[in-house]
Structure formats: structure tokens, C-alpha cells
Amino acid sequence: xxxxxxxxxxxxxxxxxxxxxxxxxxxxxxxxxxxxxxxxxxxxxxxxxxxxxxxxxxxxxxxxxxxxxxxxxxxxxxxxxxxxxxxxxxxxxxxxxxxxxxxxxxxxxxxxxxxxxxxxxxxxxxxxxxxxxxxxxxxxxxxxxxxxxxxxxxxxxxxxxxxxxxxxxxxxxxxxxxxxxxxxxxxxxxxxxxxxxxxxxxxxxxxxxxxxxxxxxxxxxxxxxxxxxxxxxxxxxxxxxxxxxxxxxxxxxxxxxxxxxxxxxxxxxxxxxxxxxxxxxxxxxxxxxxxxxxxxxxxxxxxxxxxxxxxxxxx
Length: 315
Description:
By secondary structure, the protein is an alpha/beta fold. Strands 1, 2, 3, 4, 5, 6, 7, 8 and 9 form a 9-stranded mixed beta sheet that branches. Helix 5 runs parallel beside helix 10 and helix 8 runs parallel beside helix 9. The longest helix is centred in the C-terminal third of the chain and has 29 residues. The protein is globular, with a radius of gyration of 20 Å.
């Protein structure tokens, strides 16, 4: 039986996926299996991966099932003691697997359920979502609507206080880690039920972390490191992904807080987030000598589509 089952959901990122698999082959020296769940890619990645990495298990979906459902497909056939949820646009380091395993195996008394690595952007800076506090109404209002993180001097302080209060050089018990790389005990994942399937994009990892912390510890460790290029699938359909992220965060607030919390989030987006976003993007386009009228039209249409979405009307 493999010690680790890598589960990777992929959509039209053949080159990144190839590099990710190569890094696993190079740096994971323990017994493992790799499960790729492909969400109806059109870049020939399924055939390419089958030929170049014949030992990889591939589930080829005929439609894009989204991140949550596709991961659950992989979990259902995984045989490892641990499941490594990994994005295709990541690269492992030599210390990644060993560092994560050493941390999660430290002590049964500590009840460590899952662990995440120190994550770097492609330029070597730390990707702060690898250890964070989940979104709140305060962070939505101050950071997403009013964009206070851009204010000189105090912006970084506000962002750190609301979302990223941790030291990235210490092993810590945290509230949330990034879904780009999570090592979790397979039995624990089965117990909590995997990702909630209704999530479209964004929020599913926060909710999973929430359920993990209800039964044990969620640990961040700098003793394991990865590179995460970030958003290589989602940037292909930016407007749709943005809409899905708003819908998914609404679902997160409803499930992990309460219905009233979710309703307040909708009010914030409707009366502050959407108008401010339209105004800011329109002015930015004018200042950059682009057609403000075109940007205004696109943004208005995006929000109209969001507010017409049946999921938006579920309180």
C-alpha cells in the first residue's frame, strides 16, 4: 500500500502539470501513487501525461466538475495512508514530502490531522495564504471592498492583522492553510467527508480547514517548502472564476458561520463591493488610456450575471 496518494486536479495546464509530476518523481522517494483528475482539458494533457508518466492514474472527466468535486473523485480511489492534495502549478523541493511527513507523524497525542508547507511565489516571495485566518466580514469590507491593503504604511498592517498574523518561520497550529498543498491523514479525510461538493471556486479549502480544526490540529511547517505559481487554471476564465469565488465565499460563510452571516456578506457585495469595483476599474482604465466605457459595460454585465445566478438567490 502506498504511504502517500497525490491527488491533483488539472484543467488545461499541461506544461505546469508535467513539471509538477517531474518534481514528484525526483523528490518523493517513498512509496506513493499519483492520481490526476482532469476536468475536460482541451490541451491534450491527458494523452500527453499517459504517455510520459504511464504509472499515473488518470480520471478523465467529460466536463469540468470544479475543484471540490474533482478532488473528491480522486479521494474515492486513493489507497495511501496520507493524501497529498496538490495543485498542478506547484513544484516540490527536496524537503517537501519528508518535512510534511515528519511534522504530521510527530506525536499521536498532538492529534495532528493535516499539515501545509511554506509556499513561495515564482519570484521567491512567501505566498501568505499558506498560513492564514479565514475570511471574515471585516476582511471582506476593508480589504475587498475598500482595498485598504493598498494604503501606504497602514495597509500591510491591516491585511496582516485580519488575514495573515502568523510568523512564517515557525511550526504553528493555524486556522487555515492553502488548498494548493495539504497533506492529510486519509482516515481523517474520510471521517470529515472530503470537500463540500457545492463549492465552485474558492472557499472549499477554508471550509475543509474549518472541519479539520473541529477534530484536531491543522499545522503549518516551514520545514517543508513548495513553489506555487498560482491561478494558472483560473486565470483562463477570470470573470467566471471571480463570480464563482463570490458565490463560494457566500456558501462558506453560511456553512461555517450562519445564514445571517451569509446574508450580510451578500449585502456588502451588492451595495459596496460591486459598485466600488466598477468605479475603480473604470477610472483605472481611463487613466491607462483604455476605453472606460467598455470596461464599465463589461463589469456591469459581470455583476448582472452574478446577481442573476440562481445560487446568489439561495439565502
